Amino acid sequence: MRKPSRGRPRSFDEDAVLDAVMRAFWEHGYEGTSVATLEAATGLKAPSLYGAFGSKEVLYQTALERYASEHGNVLRPDGPAREAISEFLYEAADQFSESGLPPGCMVSTAALALGASQRGVADRPARMRSETLGGIEQRLRTAVTEGELPDETDVGALARLFGAVIQGMSVQAIDGATRQELRGLAAVAMDAWPPRGGAGR
């Protein structure tokens, strides 16, 4: 986020404005959030908003980091991997359908439909999704090493399955899926966990 400019103190609550910006991008996506949408959400005119925080792209990146900090789902690094990943999926289902918040995941869906000219905007959420996928894969590799998963488990494919389920739950939440329905998806996804004595391919 840009450092505040020197001069007259701001006449608005910066945290409240950034929360409003985050919710606008979360609910409408990057392209769907117009200048008018941001003005209506924050109560500020575009010159004041952009003068304080930067361009729309900078605002989006700031909102994305705020979302990750306040609403991001974290994969537990300790305990059995199956238990940790199951919790991760169920927590995502609950978060994506939480009352009072926009449905779905801002990281999963807010910038998926951008054209080539806006790849800079999409790069950060893509990296965040990649980091999540990498964390799941590393957890699975450790599970193989520790004997929780069979040696022949295709950990890359299994990690991508769980990642796809998370993104799919986000889309379905936006389309109106209930918490119970999303939790059902999480349960079915965990059925793909290879048994210790079976093949993982």
UniProtKB/TrEMBL annotation:
<protein>
    <submittedName>
        <fullName>AcrR family transcriptional regulator</fullName>
    </submittedName>
</protein>
<keyword id="KW-0805">Transcription regulation</keyword>
<keyword id="KW-0238">DNA-binding</keyword>
<dbReference type="InterPro" id="IPR011075">
    <property type="entry name" value="TetR_C"/>
</dbReference>
<dbReference type="InterPro" id="IPR036271">
    <property type="entry name" value="Tet_transcr_reg_TetR-rel_C_sf"/>
</dbReference>
<dbReference type="Pfam" id="PF16925">
    <property type="entry name" value="TetR_C_13"/>
</dbReference>
<feature type="DNA-binding region" description="H-T-H motif">
    <location>
        <begin position="34"/>
        <end position="53"/>
    </location>
</feature>
<dbReference type="InterPro" id="IPR001647">
    <property type="entry name" value="HTH_TetR"/>
</dbReference>
<keyword id="KW-0804">Transcription</keyword>
<dbReference type="Pfam" id="PF00440">
    <property type="entry name" value="TetR_N"/>
</dbReference>
<dbReference type="GO" id="GO:0003677">
    <property type="term" value="F:DNA binding"/>
</dbReference>
<feature type="domain" description="HTH tetR-type">
    <location>
        <begin position="11"/>
        <end position="71"/>
    </location>
</feature>
<dbReference type="InterPro" id="IPR009057">
    <property type="entry name" value="Homeodomain-like_sf"/>
</dbReference>
